[in-house]
């Protein structure tokens, strides 16, 4: 959970639109699911059996990740990019679009993390009132970001080289 949490915090701190940050968080989450499918499977089934400090640590990390997603989502609503009055529910819906992929995704199958992220975010953004033109623009900006910022990989387990504040991403 730590690499994902770190990467989500880095993405949340980027100086770019909240929809692009949600799209990048989405791909990062799906990338770790693809890379650590066996770990995710065990985690999702066995975390309830943990106790004490281990369970508290795990739940705190989950809450921190949800907070990263929620913070960016609230910003998107505040800016008018998405429309909802129930941001907690919207956060859970965003997470639910991603979290159960471990049950059916195949790392060497026809869908990549980038493809699934594009599809999940397209569904999510449209469902919360983003026009089709905005959905297309976010996807274009995600592709440009990944091309121009190879030093900022979305893989949570890869090293990130910090960029100076105010750099256009």
Which keywords apply here?
7 helices, single chain, 169 residues, mainly alpha, Tetracycline Repressor, domain 2
Describe the structure.
With 169 residues, this protein is mostly helical. The chain has seven helices and no strands. It has a single domain (2-148), classed as Tetracycline Repressor, domain 2 (Orthogonal Bundle), CATH 1.10.357. It has helices spanning 2-12, 18-35, 37-46, 52-78, 87-99, 113-127, 132-148. It is globular, with a radius of gyration of 16 Å. It starts with a helix and ends in a 21-residue tail after the last helix.
SSE blueprint and pairings:
Elements: H1 2-12, H2 18-35, H3 37-46, H4 52-78, H5 87-99, H6 113-127, H7 132-148
Helix pairs in contact: 1-2, 1-4, 2-4, 2-6, 2-7, 4-5, 5-6, 6-7
What would a concise description of this structure say?
The chain is mainly α and 169 residues long. It has helices at 2-12, 18-35, 37-46, 52-78, 87-99, 113-127, 132-148.
Q: How many strands in all?
A: 0
Strand residue percentage = under 5%
Which stretches are low in confidence, meaning pLDDT under 50 for 5 or more residues running? Answer: none
Terminal-residue CA separation: 25 Å
| Count of runs of 4 or more consecutive helical residues | 7
Proportion in helices: 55-70%
Q: Globular, elongated, flat, extended or rod-shaped: what is the shape?
A: globular
Major β-sheet, in short? Answer: none
Task: Give the CATH H-level superfamily.
Answer: Tetracycline Repressor, domain 2
In the CATH hierarchy, what is the architecture at level 2? Answer: Orthogonal Bundle
Kindly report the average pLDDT value. Answer: 89
**Might you state the CATH topology name?**
Tetracycline Repressor, domain 2
Any idea how many domains?
A: 1
**Order of helical and strand elements:** HHHHHHH
Oligomer: single chain
Spatial extent as radius of gyration: 16 Å
Name of the top-level CATH class: Mainly Alpha
Structural class: mainly alpha
């Amino acid at each position: 959970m730590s690499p994902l949490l770190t990467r989500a915090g880095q993405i949340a701190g980027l100086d770019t639109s909240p929809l692009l940050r949600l799209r990048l968080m989405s791909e990062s989450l799906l990338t770790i699911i693809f890379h650590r499918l066996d770990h995710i499977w065990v985690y999702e089934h066995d975390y309830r059996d943990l106790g004490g400090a281990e369970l508290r640590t795990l739940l705190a990390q989950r809450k921190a990740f949800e907070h990263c997603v929620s913070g960016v989502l609230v910003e998107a609503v505040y800016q008018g990019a998405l429309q909802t009055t129930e941001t907690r529910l919207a956060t859970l819906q965003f997470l639910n679009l991603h979290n159960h992929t471990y049950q059916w995704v195949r790392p060497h199958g026809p869908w990549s993390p980038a493809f699934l992220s594009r599809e999940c975010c397209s569904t999510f953004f449209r469902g919360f009132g983003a026009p089709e033109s905005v959905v297309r623009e976010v996807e274009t900006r995600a592709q440009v970001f990944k091309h121009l910022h190879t030093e900022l990989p979305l893989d949570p387990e890869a090293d990130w080289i910090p960029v100076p504040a105010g750099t256009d991403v």
